[in-house]
Amino acid sequence: MDRTVIAYVIYLVVSIALTVWVARTLSRNGRIFLADVLRGNDKLADAVNHLLVVGFYLVNLGFVALYLSGDETIDDTRGIFEALSTKLGVVLLVLGAMHLANVYVLNRIRRRGIMEREQLPPVAPQGWVSPAPGA
Fold it and tell me: Can you state the angle between helices 42-66 and 3-37, rounded to 10 degrees?
């Protein structure tokens, strides 16, 4: 079998496995964060979590597929490792960037929700107090 094909197969298996692992980890741990962002609305948190996971899969697996092709032919075992390290390194960087982008956006939404909650007084006003004389 051609070494280039072997490198492609290894690249696809490892990239898809990494993408699935990261997506499942983000989904499992991000659900709690989403529930807080969405003020305890569990059904909405689950729906948003599912949509984020689907988008994550589409973007990352699309990138993995586009990045599969290479111009070089691999002549030896060393070439397999060099090609795989380059391709998998870029895939890991893209996965990390996607993760950081998701966390950044969700944190902005969470901060906005916290600011809205802090603007409401804890107790409704009960009346007016006249200013002190001479003040």
Answer: 160
